[in-house]
């Protein structure tokens, strides 16, 4: 019976009796598989004899003994009505061939009719059959099923062979991925995302030819190896590639970031070359003005250093290696001590003091800053309680709040718990927020800030004047204090016009009933200018450096 006759009856008949009568003709095992879910919809008697009754189970579990869909599965990517799939089946302990045909199942689902067959040429010896099937399996194992490019395993072999065969040439490994590819999948659907990947693969073949010196590594990450004479040659090839990628029918732009590793030592494994090219990619992520970067050994050193820090940060927090240092704040009118800023110092038992710039940016990227901030808040409250118990006059301590807390923490509840735990007044804590925080979600931030102010906390904008629309910002937000950034102070008072800008900025803030603090005050010129401009408070090395709590305690009466 012709398959088209079977398909016609499957489409028109809903009786499983009829289906049985059709699909049990002959001696071949046959199944019907849902193309979208991999569910086995039907088995004939021969199939049940071979594999057992598995209707309702997933085909990759039954036929291939795999928990996940086979990496080389051709069902999602069948381009015609028929396809052949050669595979080693653990269940049968032999290599077999399946013939697939597209059908519509009687309930409307997209399906394939799968028939188990043997190689038809009786003249082919058994050894030849196994070699043929083994080669077919190897080809599928080395190929990405969506784009039909070599996969990462194959790429490593290609690159190694190329580097061995041409010892005199200069080569580079180039890695690239698609900016915000997840957003493309989320907004336009995974099918569109797949179309983008197929488009990228087609352009790779157009630009680099058929040698196969390129691969889809995984997800939206691709790689290729290229021979070059100058760095300019690599850039020109990348620009050509980018231009071809941009010539598409999608309703959105496809932006790609490239990392380039110039191969100097051929003893380095290719997978490590790829890792180093990816390090270069990461250095330009989010920078719309840069589309490629060359690997520098410093990237590797920085990454190793960052990995070491991340391995130690949790244990150091438990051990108490993070110390609260306090930097005094002085009222300019009479140089009286009126407050302190809590600053974190990592006092490592083996490495000594680790500079904040070596770990704070990393903690902000990996989210550990939330735990560190909360630890510092606790230390500040504990210190205030200690001063009160010792009969001293406590001064307010300002603590930092990062952007992570606004999104992931109930700040009102967190600070309410702390002041109750240590029985201190909320007026003793000043909460510092960086100016950049107000760019993310000003409405949500304002709600949080008002809730904190209603509890009696004072709010301070740190790094004021660091580069955003500062003057417009303080018109729209609810804060008590602005803290003039050191760079803003240095840059502006260097000229007469700049001095006028700072002077009027302070005047405007005071007209809005805001207190003004200047940080990074290091010279007498700074102090004299700030006094003449009616600035309220100053902190900086001119007065005192950040100091351990034991030293700061001596300043408290």
Task: Summarize the helices and strands and which ones pair or pack.
Blueprint lengths: L2 H10 L3 H8 L6 E5 L5 E4 L1 H7 L7 H5 L18 E8 L4 E11 L5 E8 L8 H16 L10 H14 L4 E9 L2 H8 L1 H19 L5 E5 L2 E8 L2 H16 L9 E7 L7 H13 L9 E3 L2 H23 L2 E10 L4 E13 L3 E3 L1 H11 L2 H21 L7 E5 L1 H6 L2 H12 L6 E6 L7 H13 L3 E7 L5 H7 L4 E4 L1 H7 L3 H16 L3 E4 L5 H9 L4 E2 L8 E2 H4 L5
Parallel strand pairs: 9-10, 12-14, 14-15, 15-16, 16-17, 17-18, 18-19
Antiparallel strand pairs: 1-2, 1-5, 3-4, 4-5, 6-8, 6-9, 7-8, 11-12, 11-19, 11-20, 12-13
Helix pairs in contact: 7-8, 8-9, 18-19
Could you say which overall geometry the principal axes of the C-alpha atoms support? elongated
Helix content: 40-55%
Low-pLDDT parts are 1-5, 10-14, 119-125
Whole-angstrom Rg: 34 Å
* CATH domain class name of the largest domain: Alpha Beta
Tally of discrete structural domains: 3
Number of helices: 21
What number is the mean pLDDT?
83
Structural class by secondary-structure content? alpha/beta
Condensed summary:
Helices cover 44% and strands 22% of the residues.
Report on this model:
This protein is an alpha/beta fold and 557 residues long. The chain has three domains: 3-140, 2-Layer Sandwich (Beta-Lactamase); 152-295, Alpha-Beta Plaits, CATH 3.30.70; 312-555, Alpha-Beta Barrel (TIM Barrel). It contains 21 helices and 20 strands. The strands form three sheets. Strands 11-12-14-15-16-17-18-19 form an eight-stranded mixed β-barrel, surrounded by five helices. It has a five-stranded antiparallel beta sheet with strand order 2-1-5-4-3. It is elongated and about 100 Å long. 30% of the residues are buried.
């Amino acid at each position: 019976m012709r398959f088209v006759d079977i398909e016609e009856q499957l489409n028109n008949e809903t009786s499983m009796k009829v289906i049985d009568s059709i699909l049990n003709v002959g001696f071949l095992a046959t199944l019907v598989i849902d193309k979208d879910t991999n569910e086995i919809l039907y088995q004939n008697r021969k199939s049940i004899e071979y594999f057992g009754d598995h209707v309702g189970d997933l085909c990759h579990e039954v036929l291939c003994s795999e928990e996940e869909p086979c990496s080389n599965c051709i069902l999602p990517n069948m381009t015609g009505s028929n396809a052949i799939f050669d595979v080693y089946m653990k269940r049968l302990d032999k290599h077999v061939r399946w013939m697939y045909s597209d059908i519509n199942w009687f309930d409307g689902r997209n399906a394939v009719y799968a028939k188990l067959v043997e190689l038809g040429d009786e003249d082919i010896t058994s050894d030849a059959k196994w070699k043929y099937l083994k080669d077919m399996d190897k080809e599928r194992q080395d190929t990405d099923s969506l784009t039909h490019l070599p996969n990462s395993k194959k790429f490593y072999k290609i690159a190694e062979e190329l580097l061995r065969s041409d010892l005199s040439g200069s080569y580079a490994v180039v890695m690239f991925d698609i900016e915000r590819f997840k957003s493309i999948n989320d907004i336009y659907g995974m099918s569109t995302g797949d179309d983008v990947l197929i488009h990228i693969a087609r352009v790779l073949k157009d630009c680099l030819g058929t040698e196969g010196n390129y691969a889809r590594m995984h997800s939206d990450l691709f790689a290729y190896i290229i021979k070059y004479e100058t760095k300019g040659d690599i850039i020109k090839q990348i620009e050509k590639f980018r231009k071809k990628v941009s010539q598409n029918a999608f309703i959105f732009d496809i932006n790609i970031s490239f990392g380039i590793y110039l191969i100097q030592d051929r003893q380095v494994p290719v997978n490590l070359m790829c890792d180093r090219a990816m390090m270069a990619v990461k250095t330009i992520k989010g920078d719309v003005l840069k589309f490629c970067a060359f690997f520098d050994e410093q990237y590797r050193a920085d990454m190793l250093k960052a990995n070491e820090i991340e391995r130690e940060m949790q244990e150091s927090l438990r051990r108490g290696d993070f110390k609260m240092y306090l930097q005094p704040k002085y009222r300019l009118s009479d140089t009286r001590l009126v407050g302190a800023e809590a600053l974190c110092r990592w006092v490592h038992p083996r490495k000594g003091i680790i500079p904040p710039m070596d770990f704070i940016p990393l903690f902000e990227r990996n989210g550990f800053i939330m735990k560190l901030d909360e630890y510092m808040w606790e230390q500040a409250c504990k210190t205030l309680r200690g001063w009160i118990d010792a009969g001293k006059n406590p001064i307010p301590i300002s603590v930092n709040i990062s952007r992570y807390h606004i999104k992931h923490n109930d700040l009102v509840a967190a600070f309410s718990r702390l002041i109750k735990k240590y029985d201190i007044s909320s007026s003793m804590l000043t909460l510092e927020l960086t100016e950049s925080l107000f760019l993310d979600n000003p409405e949500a931030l304002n709600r949080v800030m008002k809730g904190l102010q209603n509890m009696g906390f004072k709010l301070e904008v740190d790094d004021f004047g660091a580069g955003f629309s500062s003057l417009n910002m303080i018109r729209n937000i609810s804060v008590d204090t602005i803290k003039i950034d050191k760079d803003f102070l240095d840059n502006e008072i260097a000229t007469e016009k700049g001095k006028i800008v700072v002077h009027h900025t302070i005047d405007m803030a005071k007209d809005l009933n805001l207190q003004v603090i200047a940080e990074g005050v290091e010279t007498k010129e700074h102090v004299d200018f700030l006094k003449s401009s009616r600035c309220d408070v100053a902190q900086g090395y001119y007065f005192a450096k950040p100091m351990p709590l034991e030293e700061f305690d001596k300043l408290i009466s």
